[in-house]
Design goal:
homodimer, 197 residues, four-stranded antiparallel sheet, 9 helices, DNA-binding
Chain lengths: 197, 197
DNA sequence: CGTCTATTTGAATGTACTCAAAAGCGGTGG
DNA sequence: CCACCGCTTTTGAGTACATTCAAATAGACG
């Protein structure tokens, strides 16, 4: 149950067996069925979440009622409304499950305690945030400079096999295009690959 | 010379006079003339920068040779290539001055020392990063869901008077549109405001 | 099996783009 | 201080890509 999260942490910091044990003792398991909400816009978020299994989306709904997906989170990713978790203000995003999902939850007060007892975790979560920030910068550049078909190409390269798992509609929302457009992009894509082969 | 940066820090943490003094003793002053580089893509970035006066842009150049601006930094903002500063890998962005600029520079080793002597700064820089992350998320949503004229409108609302200071070409690059398009958007904008008046 | 939603396809529209040319503006050197 | 050069901004015309609206088909779920 904890192998994945421990491996995830080991990317950046090294823990002793005792530290590992202490850390995992702070985690709570949560299961969600497909379509269930994890966070709704306006909630005060008390947890940071690690995805052990399954898939979620983080999105917002604009004045016209349209959904815009900021992020997908699959196994081995962290998720949550960072803004709300850290400031204890109402969440700006809604998060729900696109598949049956299993999460490990780390509560705010547990995290504070963890920072004190095992200060390495300050470093870990800072690195996590930095990486998230950097990849967000890259996504901005892409969204401003690339046409839709290239953005799709970047997406399937960066998140291999995600496109087989997710409904087209959700990917279109993530890319900022209509489902119709993505459908056409995909059929061009297949046609071009066939030509080359 | 240090009023601005101390006020900036006071938004999130409270310092004693001694801590303020210690902190400012770590800072180095740097002046840049218009068009000078602060960071070039590929550099290893050793400093985090606070803008005391002036204006800079952070951008990257794509395969086609086109510039894409990730960020403008004016007085009271922090800037730098966060990725390079924190990982000591080559910078992904170039930063140069759009006006004569005055910076306060905080070196990596000085920051590490600061974290140890005044741990509150861990909190400060974490909050800084979080805010940057959150506003980046908002920008993604905007860039994917709004037409160019609305993005311009958001820009001038969020960064009041910036549009008077910056060349049109630079703003167009930030918004991900051509200078021609922004020029047209502006003239429509003026026309519409006149109608209403 | 039937209903509801997702996906595909087509046609018409619109927004932003490219290319081209003219006008405006700023900085430099004589 | 002015004239010139180069770069920025504006404007116009034609084009390309993505959108909207509509309708047909496919697929998922109860």
């Amino acid at each position: 149950m904890y192998e994945l999260i421990l491996k995830n942490i080991a990317r950046f910091i090294t823990l002793t067996p005792e530290e590992e044990h202490y850390f995992t003792s702070l985690l709570k398991l949560k299961k969600l069925r497909k379509k269930q909400y994890l966070v709704q816009e306006g909630d005060i978020v008390r947890y940071d979440y690690f995805v052990n299994k399954g898939c979620l989306r983080t999105y917002t709904i604009d004045e016209k009622g349209l959904e815009h997906i900021v992020q997908f989170s699959i196994e081995d990713w962290w998720t949550g409304d960072m803004y709300s978790f850290l400031t204890q203000q109402p969440a700006r995003y809604t998060i729900d499950a696109l598949e049956d999902t299993e999460l490990l939850c780390l509560e705010r007060s547990a995290l504070e305690e963890l920072y004190i007892k095992v200060p390495k975790f300050e470093r870990f979560f800072r690195l996590l945030l930095q990486n998230a920030f950097v990849s967000m910068q890259e996504r901005i550049i892409g969204s401003l400079s690339q046409p839709a078909d290239e953005r799709y190409c970047t997406f399937i390269t960066k998140y291999p096999n995600m496109e087989k798992r997710l409904p087209l509609k959700q990917i279109a929302s993530y890319l900022g295009i209509t489902p119709e457009s993505l459908s056409r992009i995909r059929s061009n894509y297949i046609r071009n690959n066939k030509k080359r082969a």
